[in-house]
Amino acid sequence: MLYPNKIKKNTLKQVTYSNRGMDLENLINETNEYYLEKDQALIYKKPTPIGISEATYTDHGRIIKNGYFKAPSTLDYNGIYKGKYIEFEAKETQSKTSFPLANFHEHQLKYLRRVLNHGGICFIIIKINTLTYLLKGEDVIWFLDHETRKSFPYSYIKEKGFFIKDGYNPPLDYLKIVDEVYLERI
Amino acid sequence: MLYPNKIKKNTLKQVTYSNRGMDLENLINETNEYYLEKDQALIYKKPTPIGISEATYTDHGRIIKNGYFKAPSTLDYNGIYKGKYIEFEAKETQSKTSFPLANFHEHQLKYLRRVLNHGGICFIIIKINTLTYLLKGEDVIWFLDHETRKSFPYSYIKEKGFFIKDGYNPPLDYLKIVDEVYLERI
User: Fold this and answer.
1) Which CATH number is B47's domain given?
2) Which of B69, B75, B113, B116 to probe by mutation at the A interface, max A CB count within 10 Å?
3) Within a domain: residue A144?
């Protein structure tokens, strides 16, 4: 795909042939593209909100000359799956023993609670020790409300979370877990 | 609210005290803020997707020095209301007799169809002749599939659409129409 400046989009896909080198965000983006192609779900990463201090007009349209990133107040991904509203956030940590809550903005954790209250499916995807887990929003909230620790112990993630297996295509089939955890238990 | 460069955010709110001067997008954004405050719904405008060709690091974090706007492939607003997935687009026209379909990207119209197929509530909000209407996605699709015209005649909008009354707070209470059209008829 060619962009206005004729620079090819730099994707990790071009240089890595296994999931090993791909970060969590890329794995999920590829998985979402797979779901979109198969018409299984419509789930997108929300663009990072941008503030624009300076813009100019060129032959290619409006161009940003000075912009900055704003802190997100909602979770990164949302969409629709089997008629249900889904929203989630995905984060990875280098720590092997716990997952620091500082990986999330405070606004995001408040927002997670609101999505649950409105009847949405809401969770976080956490990668720790090279393993990926889905942790239900309800279990995130329980921890925030009952614990004073500033990080999820790995034991809590293993106990409450649901392991998401790496795959080839899609690379991270988290909707399989959503089926099991949310939809088949109703 | 102060942004990194200490320029106050320029909002229409500061200069207009009636809806008359506000464009449709601002009316809807203010309405969504009202819904958010009242915890009635969680509905956001998606940030316009940006491509970044050049970025630099400063004391304030990463700054965009060269960026461009990408064409949206989904609709502008989405969120959750009473447990339902909602997605819509809002556009106004200066024409008094018809609403040109060219106001929407072709990708967006295809996407509208997909959201409906996945069981979401999907519509467009159209402002024509200073009046605002909600047109159900199903009626947009019907028109695309049965008509060759490149614009909705005003008569079609009046016949199929649902009039949204201007208000003070919220300025455009479109969820009242969503209640009537989608939720109370079940």
Assistant:
1) 3.40.1350.10
2) B69
3) yes
